[in-house]
Amino acid sequence: MFGCREPSPFTLHKPSDANLPAMVDLIPFPLSSRTSLVRSMVDDLERVHGPAASEFWRRRVAEIIAELRASGLPDGAIRSEIYSLQDAVQAELQYRMRSQTSSGDAA
Questions:
Q1: How would you class 43 by CB atoms within 10 Å of its CB: exposed for 0-12, middle for 13-18, buried for 19 or more?
Q2: How far is residue 107's CA from residue 103's CA, in Å, rounded to a whole number?
């Protein structure tokens, strides 16, 4: 009764290490959807202007690229993530500007 039986179809098992590379794809949470990242970058960009803002952006993006490379993401995917992040930051900047303008009109 408790001897060898067929494995249950519901038994979880760890695949052998030989199968892992074919089974794993790195899918990071998109940078552009990381609301706290986007908002913190916009907060910083609102405090600095001109060359200091450009330097901040380059330095922060370089840090993010290094993190993504260390995680094994290919360069093409990194490029796409950075462009999407840039779009999200620009959209947040525009949203804040519109919000300030509309609240200024009401006052």
A1: exposed
A2: 7
